[in-house]
Amino acid sequence: MSPARSILLTIVLSVVAAAGGAWGGAHFVVGRMHHGTPFHQMVHEELHLTRDQDRRIDGLERDYAARRRALEAEMRAANADLAQAIRQGHAYTPAVQHAIDRSHQAMSQLQTQTILHVLAMRQVLTPDQAARFDETVGRALTEDAA
Q1: Structural domain tally of the chain?
Q2: What is the rounded CA–CA span in Å between residue 4 and residue 62?
Q3: Which residues form a coiled coil (predicted)?
Q4: CA distances, 8 to each of 81, 103, 128 (Å)
Q5: Residues 6+ apart with CB under 8 A from 90
Q6: Rounded to whole angstroms, how far apart are CA atoms 31 and 55?
Q7: pLDDT for the residue 80
Q8: Entry pTM
Q9: For 53, what's the count of Cα atoms within 13 Å in the CB-facing half-sphere?
Q10: How far is CA 60 from CA 21, 41, 76, 105, 114, in A?
Q11: Percent with pLDDT over 70 in the chain
């Protein structure tokens, strides 16, 4: 294989690996707070929510789920654009960079929406519930950091 082809292949694989890693990382972090996780179970089963709190949090979760689905669709579309740009240019072109930027923007928006959702749920809780909630959020965000 010629040096130019080797460099091109390295660049393409690096871009694909970076996009895949970013996508996977975003899903890992966001997935920790979706239904069926210890976080969700703690909120709905261990905080002893009142009916009103449960109703309000369910509404927040429905709204967040819709925003999350839209942003995940945007990330999938950005990845499709990235694949197309790589197929067309076989190099790190402006189209590749644009697709990467689009993906990063969607991931950033998803992370922001997730944090806003968590903080909105916290506002529904009593001080004692919020303290337990804060401990669980802190563990979820730092569990793999050590």
Answers
A1: 1
A2: 51
A3: 61-88
A4: 19, 22, 57
A5: 8, 12
A6: 22
A7: 92
A8: 0.69
A9: 15
A10: 29, 16, 24, 23, 11
A11: 74
pLDDT over 90 (residue 73): yes
d(CA 125, CA 53): 7
Longest Cα–Cα distance in the chain: 68
Specify burial of residue 11 (Cβ count, 10 A radius: 0-12, 13-18, 19+).
middle
C-alpha triplet 32, 145, 64: angle, nearest 5°: 25
Check residues 71 and 25 and name the one with the higher pLDDT: 71
The tens digit of pLDDT for each residue in 16-40 reads: 666 666 556 555 555 554 445 667 7
CATH number of the domain enclosing 92: 1.20.120.1490
Reduced to 3 states (helix: H, G, I; strand: E, B; else coil), residue 75 is helix
